[in-house]
Amino acid sequence: MQPDESAPLPGRQDEQKSADRRRFLAGAGAACASAALASVLGPTLALGETRVSFPTPDYDWEKHNWGYGIDATKCIGCLRCVDACKNENGVAKDAHHFRTWVERYVYIEGEKHPRIDSQADPGNIAVSAPDASRFDDRYKDAKVEKAFFVPKMCNHCQEPSCVQVCPTGATYKTKDGAVLVDKSYCIGCQYCVQACPYGARYFNDVERRADKCTWCYHRISKGMNPACVEVCPVGARVFGDMNDKSSPISRFLKDNRVFVLKPEMGNKPTCFYIGIDKEVS
Amino acid sequence: MDPAQAAHAVFHVTPYTGYVYPNETVVPWSILIVIYPYLTGLVAGAFTVSSFYHVFGMERFKPVARFALIAALSFMVVVPLTLLSHLGHPERAFNAMMTPHTTSAMAIFGYVASFYVILLMLEIWFMFREDIVHNARHDRTWKRPFYRLMTLGSYEINELTRRYDHKWLMALAIIGIPAAHGLHGYVGFVFGSLKSREWWSSDLMPVIFLFSAIVSGISVLIIFYMLISLIRRVRIDEDCIKGMVLALWGFLMFTVTLEGVEFFALMYRAREGIEIIREYKDGPLFWRFTVMQIGIGALLPVLIMTLMVYFRTAGRKLLLGAFVSASLVLVSVIFMRYNVVIGGQEISKTMKGLLDYSVPYFGQEGWLMAAALLSTPLLFMYILTRFFNPWDDTAPVRAGGAHTRDSCRLGAGEQAPVSEGGASG
Amino acid sequence: MPKHILRLSVLIVVSLALAVSAKAYFTVDSFYRYGHYRADSVPMIAAQEPAYRGPAYCADCHSDRHGQWSSNGHKTVKCEICHGPARTHPFDPNDPDKTFKLPRPTAEDTRTLCTLCHMQLTARPLRDPPQQAWDPAVGKSAPWRTGISQVLPDEHSGGSACLMCHDPHQPKPIRFKEELVQAAQP
Fold it and tell me: What is the longest distance spanned by two Cα atoms in chain A?
C-alpha cells in the first residue's frame, strides 16, 4: 500500500527515520488513515521493463512534441477549418459548439474599440447554410480602418487550467503535448469549461460530457495533419513536431516573432500566433 | 454527428451583447449550482449556531441547538443531489471519489463533504444516544427496529457512558467548527480559484462565502424555530431569538463590509476589461446586486436590527422584527449566490461582452427543479425529527429520571459537573 | 471503554477499510499508468477513423482530375473542401454491396462554394503586398501573397454560375465551356 515506506532508498534516511517513527506511533486507525491517503493520492506504478510504443504500435508519443502556429495575416475567413473540424470530429453543427472558430475584428473610423464577431453572431448564422459556416458582409459600406480574421482553438497549454480543475482525471495532457478528454470517464461537471480562459471547451450535449479540440489526435498519430490544417487553403494554420527542426512549426517559430493569447494567465499555450492585435484576447 | 441524434441534444442558448466566445453562449452552470452553495451555506450557518451552545456554552441558544444539527444534516443531504442533478453523467460521479485529482478543488470537495457528513451524523448520534436507547426499549411503533439498530446493541447508560458520550460529543463539535466552515470556505474556493473569470477570481471569495453562509444559517434557524414553534403551539423562547438576532446583526454587518470591500477593490483595481464590469454593474446587476443583495437584503435588515438593539425591543415586536430581518437576509444570500454563480458567467471571458442568462422554468436546470431541490430538506427535516425529537419541552423522561430541560444538554443528563465543564471548555 | 464506543470505533475502522479496498477494487486498470488518467483512453482516441483522407487518397482512382488540379494555382484548395470528407468513399461502411457517394457540387453550388473564399469581404486580406512568411506549400520561407482574388459576385457574373467561365480544378485560363456545366449535372 505504501511503496515509499516498504522500499527504502539509500540517501533517504530522514524519510526512512520518520517513516519508522510513524510506524512506531501509528495505531491501527492511523495506519488505516495513511493507507487511505496513499491510495487516494494515487500509487505511482513502475513502468514495464520493455518499452512498447504507446498509444499505437506505429506511433510513440515519447518521440513527439507537437506545436501549432496560426498566421492571422493569411486567414481569409473562409471557415473551411471550422466545417472540416465539425465533419472530422462530429461536433454539433450549430453556432454554439466549436473546437475551432474564427473571429473577425473590424476597426471602424471614429470608434474606440473594434467590432468583433464570430459564427455565434446572429448575422452570420443567418447567411450560413445549415451545415456550412459563412461570414456575412455587414461592413460593406462602413468606413473600415483595419480589419482581420483570427482563428481560435484550444491552445493545448503547457499548464492547462482544465486539467488542473478536472475532478476525475478525465482530461489530461499527453506526453506529446495534446490535451485530451476521456469521454467514457468524464462525469460532465463542466468545471473545465469554466476554467478554460480561452473558451475552447464546450459541453457535448449528445454524449453529455466535456469536449474540445484534440489536434485531431487520431490523425496526427497516423502521420496526418489535423483536419483544420489539412483544409486551410491559404496556409494560415501550421502544425508540426517541435522536436523536428525542419518541421513546419519549427520553421514558423524560427522565422517569426510569435505571440500567445492571454499570457498573463500563466497557461503557457502551445498555439503560437503571428499577426494579431492588442485587442485580440 | 448524426442529425437525428443532434436533434435530441437540448441546450439553452443565451443571448449576448458585445463579443463573447461562441462556446460561451451555452452557459455551463445554472440554477442548480446557485442553490448548491446556498444549501451548503445553510449547513455551515446552522452548525455555527449549534456550536454557540455546544462548544462556546452560550445558554440562550439551547432551544435551537439540537434542531440546528438536524437542520444542518437535512440541508447537507440535498447538497450532493444538486450536484448530481447537474452532472452530465451522474452515474459516473464516483469517478471523482475513486480517482480524485488532487489539484482539483471539486475532487477534494467530495472528500471534505463526506468527512463532514459523517461527523455530523456521529454528532447527532451521540447527542441523541440516550433517546435512542430509551426508544429502543419503550417505543411500540414501527420505528423500534431502527432505534434498536442504532443502539449498536448496547443499551448501557451510566456515568461512564455519559462521560464518554460527552467527551466524544465535545470533540466532534470542536472538529465540526473548522470542518463546517472549511466546507463552505471551500465552496468559495471552487469559484475564487478560477483565474479565467475576473468576477470570481478573488482571494476574498472563500471568506465572503463563509460569512454569508453564517448569516443565512442563523436566519434559517430563526425562521424555522419560529414557524415550528407556531405549528407546535409552544412558546417561542424570546431570549433565544434575541441571541440569534444579535449574532445575525453582528455577522451581517461584517458580511456586508466584506462584500463591499471585495467589490470596491475590483472596481478600483480596474484591470483589463473593467469597462464591461462597469457596464454590468449599472445594467443587470443594479437590481440584483445593488438593490436586492445589498440594499433590501442586507442594509435594510441591518437597519431594522440596529433599531431593535438600540431600543431593546422585546415581545411580539422583537419576534416580528427578527422574522422580517431573517427573511430578508435569506433573500439577500440567494441573490448573492445568483450574482456570483450566474454573474460570473454573464461576464464573458473575452471581457468584451455580456451574456443575458435567464433560467428556464422546466428541465434539468429550471426553476421547477430548483424549487423541488430546495424543498427536499423540509422532507428530510420532517423525517429526521420523527426519529430524533430535537425539542426540549417534549423530550421523553429518561430512565434516570433526569429533569427534561437539563437532560438534553450534550446528552450529559443530570451530570451537572460534567456539563459545566463542557460549557467552559 | 463502554461497549457502544468500542462498537462504533470498529464500525468506523471497518467502513474506512471497506472504502479503501473499494477504491482499490473499482479503480480502472490503466488509470495511474502514465499519470492521473486512464492510459487506455489514449489508444481509444487515436483509433478514431479520419474523415478527411487527403488528395493522395483521391488520386488512387481520380488520377486525371488530381493531375489537372495539382498543376495549377488551386492546388492549395484540397479536394475535400468542395467535395466533402471522403470518409470510406467509395465503400459504404455499413453495407459492403453499396457504394458511398460523395455529394457532387452542381453548377449552382459553385456560387456558394467559390464565394466562400472569393467573395470580397471586409477583413479578408487583399492580394497585395506580398509578405515574407513561412509557406507550407513551398516548404520554405518565400514571398507569400497574403490574399486571393476577390469579387463582388453579382457585379462579377451577373448571377450566372461561376462554372460558366471557371473550372474549379483549373481556374486559369478562363474557359467558357458548356461541357463544364454539362459535366456537373448529376
Answer: 83
